[in-house]
Amino acid sequence: MKFFFKIIFTGLLFIIFSCTGNSQNLEDKPYTFEQEKIIDEFVIKGSKQYGWNSYQCQEYLDKAIEKDFTIAYLWQQKAMPLFKQRKYELGMPYIDKAVYYKEKRYLPYRAFIKCIFSKQYREAIIDFQKCIDKYGNSYEMDHTYAFYIGISHLQLNEFQKAEDVLSKDIQQQITRFGEAHYLDLFYLGIAKLEQKKWKEAIVEFDKSISHYPEFAEPKYYKSRALLNLGESEQANKLLQEAIINGKNGYTINEDNAIYETYPYQIRWKSYD
Fold it and tell me: What's the pTM value of the predicted model, to 2 decimals?
């Protein structure tokens, strides 16, 4: 009962702070020694002992929040198991609080969750664009903010916008690193494929495959482009190769792909 009233009190304070715009006072401050101590005592030890998906770990988090509800990491840890269980509506209020207390750290994470987990693509674009405007086109989960904006446009059937965003992001990567990520190239190929730019799509799929030779998805979608160009024999041969690669696990292997299927990813184990 005590914790129930504490949470209500926390929520009221959260609303008050939101109205008065004081969140930036907490944004850039590192955690204090006492806050680090709370994290170590209630989160690190709790998750190591019981696992992040256990009710015991959640009880540890609740006790930590009782001690200091301004620690953004606690709210993120409350949200994370719910997202991995596909309980998006329950998890989002927690991550909203994490964003409130440390926007620079958790706004990109929330945008990523909206894009890959809860499929709120318009909201993901808004969040990632805010990240770019305030902090530059940095990275979340190994990909640029622009990458996620691009695939969000794909999922909204805004294919020209997706092509524009991904093309620009790829050029920036090439300028900075000398090459682009194979997933950016794959999704640019998809954007062109959806606009019936068959030959241009094949160029991008080939670039993606050159970085990841067994990558099944660009082979699959390249086979579709070839079929539309009248190259049925070559298309069928490449499709069979894609199926073999896909069933052998050469697919989109992002860390969070074990929880969520990425856009245009094929479920190879069930492919007939």
Answer: 0.86
**What is the model's pLDDT at position 26?**
56
The number of residues in the chain equals 272
Could you give phi then psi for residue 226, rounded to 5 degrees?
-60, -40
Side chain identity at 117, as an amino acid letter?
Answer: F
Separation CA 159–CA 168 (nearest Å): 14
DSSP state of 262: P
- Judge contact between 115 and 151, C-beta under 8 A: yes
Residue 154 to residue 160: CA distance in whole angstroms: 9
User: pLDDT tens for residues 42-60?
Assistant: 777 776 676 667 777 888 8
pLDDT at 17 over 50: no
Task: Compute the distance between CA of residue 212 and CA of residue 168 in angstroms, rounded to an integer.
Answer: 21
* CA nearest to 227, candidates 218, 216, 238, 217: 238
CATH code of the domain made up of 183-272: 1.25.40.10
- The neighbour count for residue 138, using CB atoms within 10 Å, is 12
Q: How far apart are the first and last CA of the chain?
A: 54
For the chain, domain boundaries = 1-101, 183-272
Query: What does the pLDDT look like over 161-190, one tens digit per residue?
Result: 999 999 999 999 999 999 999 999 999 999
Nearest-CA neighbor of 111 among 53, 165, 151, 170?
151
The rounded distance, in Å, linking the Cα atoms of 253 and 246 is 11
For residue 203, the model assigns a pLDDT of 98
Element (H, E) at 144: strand 143-144
CA-to-CA distance for 72 and 135, rounded, in angstroms?
19
